[in-house]
Queue: 4 jobs
Job 1
Amino acid sequence: MMTKNPTVLKWLSEIRELVQPDKEMWITGEEAQLEELRKEAVATGEMIKLNEEKLPGCYLHRTKPNDVARVEDRTFICSRKKENAGPTNNWCDPQEMYKRLYDIARGTYRGRTMYIIPFSMGPIGSPLAKIGIEVTDSIYVVLNMAIMTRVGTKVMETLGDSNDWVRGFHAKCDVDPEKRYICQFPEDNTIISVNSAYGGNVLLGKKCFALRIASYQGWKEGWMAEHMLILGIENPKGEIKYVAAAFPSACGKTNLAMLIPPKYLRDKGYKVWTVGDDIAWMRIGPDGRLYAINPENGFFGVAPGTNEHSNFNALASTRKNTIFTNVALDLDTNTVWWEKLNENPPKHAIDWRGNPWDPSKYDKNDKLSAAAHPNSRFTAPAVNCPCLSSEFNSTSGVPISALIFGGRRAKLAPLVYQAKDWAGGVFVGASVSSETTAAAAGAVGVVRHDPMAMLPFCGYHMGDYFTHWLEMGEKLGDKAPKIFHVNWFRQDENGNFIWPGFGDNMRVLNWILDRCEGKADAVETAIGYLPHPEDIDLTDLDMDRETLASILTVDKDAWLAEMDGLSEYFDKFGDRLPPSFRERIASIRKDLQ
Ligand code: SAT
Ligand code: MN
């Protein structure tokens, strides 16, 4: 027993009685204990130990083919009142859902061990951090949580007798998709996840706590939990400015967070430092500015497409002490492979389903023939990252100069534009749309509205969430970060990306920072401030000004149509939509005419 905290003991005894475990184990965070668990997982086949020389401390795990992504249609916000979950969330009455979930989970730990994982989201003891306890019957979950969060005895010591902690209960049951539920009970600080063993559904510190529960807590307590990466940009004078950026899942947040500047900028002395790649918790600091921490301690990144060129730092982060999920196993070397890791697919490999994979049958256009699942992942410790910020463990967080929203849009949205003010930026965030990706079950490539990239992650009524954003801006006043929108994904008529992306996105970040410091000019348009094409540095880039100019325009008719779609979308939020949004649509329409 690791605690005398009465609220913890009471909850644990309730769960214990329900699931009937054979054994019980508190996760202390000690390496020896984790190593025992790795050995056990290898012995049972739950994990495969990889080549100790090439990939020291690394393991491969395969989930069931029916359990490879988040399941948004089975994710619920169980607030007491339906209207508080809002129109973008599935809702169920909490008492009814508790009963349903308890019935599903009853007795399912028989013959299994109940692992109790105390974890801290954020540096232990930071005023911006929060504590949770996850109970699970999966060693895979324990080992992933031990990478993604700070776990162990120190967390319980820090919690003491407090009741300010999040209850996370996971039971893999039979991994039955028909009985799979991912449920958040925001008013009870509780998460219950059953019948899944895939990352986003079961690493309860991540989307379930750090976004769905925390967004609700932030609303009640006056702070913000956002689906944002955090990065620091160091200029040649050694000054570091931080930005946070929101993109839907699998739109390149990890790539942007770890980007390597183009050579001409590196030569001048520019550097990028990673604070976080997925989630930001932000509070107003003592000086009135907005400060951010990354509540996580590792990266749960998409593997396919990650390579030395696209994301050197992410790949480097995965070369030791990493758990790979649903990638391919190269039998000749006992290492891992995924699409676009390199040009040499393994000759003898096992695909993500566990079947022999024939590279000669691999067809780029047929996702099902891929060796690695399109949403296959690496779970890598943040300390592995060569460009990890020295502020990563800072308890006070980093001051944010700019907030950036982005989506994956083949057409319409320009490469970059700046909102006219905070309220305009909130409107820009609320109007984010993006093509869907493999990170969630369902069709890929369909444009859907995804306000602030939080559509699957907001734990309360999204209209109230917009209002909370507006109120944060009022509190921040002239210390508020500037807000921008970017789109790296514009395509030409042949479906080729126009902007090179990756490290070259630094050119856009530099314009953004120059704007924050009043150093760059801009063109005022109906939707916001756009750069003059000559204000984006194209040094060493194989791109002409006209091509750049073509993605720095505001197409009047397309934007009028966008406003129509947005206006209709906003109807959803009824009388909880901030009235200023309607006024803004009207004024943008007028300015476009
Ligand atoms: O699947 S996760 O939610 O863990 C990752 C993501 O979708 O961003
Ligand atoms: Mn994410």
Job 2
Amino acid sequence: MQSQLPTWLNQIKTTTDLPQLEALKAALLGKSGAVTQALKGLAQLPSIEEKKAKGAEINVIRDALIENFQSQTQILEAHAIKQKLNAEALDITLPFSSFTQNSSIGRIHPLTSLKEEIADFFQKRGFTFAEGPEVEDEWHNFDALNIPSHHPARQNHDTFFIQNHPTHLLRTHTSTVQIRSLATQKPPLRLISVGRVYRSDDLDATHTPMFHQIEGLVLDKNIHMGHLKGLIREFCSTLFGVADVPVRFRPSFFPFTEPSAEVDIACTRKDGKLVIGKGGDWLELLGCGMVHPNVLTNCDVDPLEYQGFAFGMGLERLCMIKNGIADIRQLYDGDETWLKHFGSFSF
Ligand code: DAH
């Protein structure tokens, strides 16, 4: 038996898979295996001494076999895992386009991606997000913003009032967030807010009773109009991807800013197409100005200590200009074909 050991060890070493190894193990160490049979054969030996000597020899052989079976099992298991991993390897070189074109996975709505793009611009410049309620009172929507009840601007806002609550309304602009924020935060601050506003307007190609506005507020010591102009110019360049885009600050009026301006961006209109960034025409983008001292006083901020600027713009309008969308209602139609064209896969 001793003489067979090298052959057996060699057989174990040269097995190439686990089932083969199991079969060999059964043939040697199993119930009717060679080693088990040899142990049973001990009973036939005539003397105790012989039994002892032979028994010890078989045990050494059995231990050597068990040890070699164990190590070969480990080798073959590792090999099997490696083979499985190789067989399951992903081919990541497959082009992405075939998947996107053929599938019907959703798209991100252009309003959502624009909102994210704008938020990203301002957040990178130290602005934090602020929010306010959509159901407001007259103080936050009008009075605190220097629009007293007799003021014509109050009538121009086409306000939706809440039934049986005459002092409550759906906010007509996000400038309310300036007042809401200043109730809990004090300057210096830089805030940006994006949200729904409501006006009892017509429903046509350029008006909907609900739309979104973006509001910005910057208050600090020694802030002046140059800061406002620099920020807005940079914003327009980034938004439309045109370096040094010509921007015009046109004097205007808002009750909550003094001086006030509307911002136009250079454009060309040719064959019904709008090209942003150059040409002799101008396109209105947003309203802005230096925060009126009355607004600051209404919020318990000393206008002699802190100054700042504010700006407001319509998200839908920017989205339409940027994407060449002619009718605002398309933004809310939920038309899948339209969304496939104007939607995107990432922000
Ligand atoms: N609230 C104005 C509107 O709805 C937009 C606006 C203009 C906001 C000038 C501002 C601003 O903060 O400074 O038409």
Job 3
Amino acid sequence: MCGIVGYIGKNRADQIVIEALKRLEYRGYDSAGVAIGDGQRIRIIKKKGKVDDLKRLIDKDELSGTIGIGHTRWATHGVPSDRNAHPFRAHDIVVVHNGIIENHLEIKERLKKKGYRFQSDTDTEVIPNLILYYTREGFDLVGAVRRAVKDLKGSYALAILREKERILVGVRHESPLLIGVGDGEYFIASDAPALISKTNRFIFLEDGDIAVLTDDGVRILDRNGENVEREIREVNWTPMMAEKGGFKHFMLKEIYEQPSSISDTILGRILEEKGEIHFEELEEMPLSRIRKFWMVACGTSYHACLIGKYIFERNLKIPVEVDLASEFRYREPPVRKGDFLILISQSGETADTIAAMREGKKRGAYTLSICNVLGSTLSRETDSTIFTRAGPEIGVASTKAFTTQIAVLFMLMLFFASRMKTKEKKEIKKMISELKKIPHKVNEVLEGGAKIEEMSKKYMYYKNFLYLGRGINFPTVLEGALKLKEISYIHAEGYAAGEMKHGPIALIDERMPVLCLSPGDSTYSKMCSNIEEVISRQGKVILITDMDSHGMAKKVEDVFVVPKTIYELQPIVSVIPLQLFAYHIANFLGTDVDQPRNLAKSVTVE
Ligand code: F6R
């Protein structure tokens, strides 16, 4: 998963591909590679590390040719290493891939039986082998690609070359890919910024499209194999605009990426027929009786832990103790052998979380990390790791990592529920089907984003905010308040609504907006009373609910309605308007949204 580029034309492909990969560096990656064809051979150079390191190798090697592909990798299957870097070759077929092949193990087994051999730990390696298999069955390159993609399940954008052929093939399926149209030369890229210095004319491929690029032009086949015309669009983006996909800030882009990052996180982990959750990463995990779960993290990841507690305890009936990593190690936590310690971290490099993990290990706990970065310290040192597949998160304020962490916690609960038999199969199936609807529901919220933007204008000059929620939405409001403080520098406090009477109510007057999360669940009537209490003290209530006719809707200042889902998944849907609210206020105030003052993306000191 990360960046793809490809070139066919009259110029040196190595130089063009390297320049394009450099332009994708801002997205983060762990290894890079190129494959360059000189008409006869295709040579591959790939390396863990930076594009500059790769360039030095290429320069030494005098790699020349006018057709080529390249890739920057953000590991999802297999640690970052030279061996797992793209491109991958199977005899004369060479491929780079973004996305996830859900059924790669199945295909690998099938091909192994036919004598195919694999060298890497990646899911990608099955693709060139599968294409090779079909060329050997008599298909030409395009035919073999068409045949191979029929066997693939998951998401993929591909760029493909074959030795001795001057054809560059691109495939798009639920992972972006576009064609750059130059003057007698053509490009492929996963993202426009890669090509912005070469052309401003793009064809944005659609799902299922196969693009065939030759020296004479571009032919596109749709998913049925029919030739189709796709419009060439001129975009006038500056390189900065292109990097952010047309969004003003990375944070906003990442908020809008959530439907796909959640889909990617779920992908391949649902065993539909069995009605079970499967984590490849946990295959080796011994499953003895678990006495107690601990969940430990910092910041936004800590809020995910708090949500995890609600999800786990309600469904597994095993106690979950949640701790801030910075507190955990100093309070002599009564962790014992047989306890299960879950550490959550986007970066996997947060010093306090790493220290907490080591402390827990010392005390005999089994350690599992939920991380977004393959090869990170936390993922290397814990007994096992489940990777969220949010992709690189560049904005300092965490958004898409948070929602994918909740998705993983939910799946982990279902995984334990079937292993421990604490839930009926049909209940698990029902919960899985709700999870599958989440990306769509998040999208629905995002489609209503303009309303939140409008609301933000009204509230941007207030100096203090209170965020109230109950149950599983208590941690959600903590997260909403954190988002507002960190990027807009406005003071905001998240509170369990029931605690309001025990102190914060003293703060409420007409200068205090109070954001209330109030879904139509068991907390509804209690939340209504809290809202009444705020209104009667002239507080301005912003209500976020999943009810079309909430009892308080007519009395509050503003209402935003999100789609309904099950209790455990509500935070994913409800946090989106809170992220947008914080973003738009900060944007209107003109703060440095992506790099707020005093904050670092990864806190590597205790
Ligand atoms: C808030 C934020 C931080 C991080 C925290 C932990 O938006 O990004 O609070 O959540 O520093 O970082 P990770 O998850 O990398 O351990």
Job 4
Amino acid sequence: MGQKGRSIVKMDVDELINLLNKALSDEWLAYYQYWIGAKVVKGPMKDAVIAELTLHATEELSHAELLATRIIQLGGTPVLSPEEWHKLTNCGYDAPADGYVEVILDQNIKGEQCAIKVYSELLDITRVGDPVTYNIILQILSDEVEHEEDLSSLKEDLELMLERRR
Ligand code: FE
Ligand code: FE
Ligand code: MG
């Protein structure tokens, strides 16, 4: 931990670390939901959907990396065991039990919408007190906004294609 780096944070650091660990848990669950979703997805436009889900999985993992690094900088301990993810998560986990493309897209759109809400709140919380964390959250939030749009646009294409066939 950097003493000076931690001392410039003008908010409750332990509470902030707790919120960052909750987000870290969300990211691991999101990573796995995308990763396993890309394996089991089936139906029209499968290849395009697999490509996007796989890319999003790697991006969620990079968010986990950013959050864990920041938690350590603040003198905290990143979540150490997967059992804790379920206790800490804000957005939960939706198992892709039905692999149909539209169901998978809907589940992940819901997840992105939850992530956008969580990061938007974290942005408000850190805005004044911790510009370093604010900057990290802003990067992550920008990705989540992009993710929601990517998935929604795939869903639109899918619906257009199915309509034309009727
Ligand atoms: Fe993420
Ligand atoms: Fe995302
Ligand atoms: Mg994308």
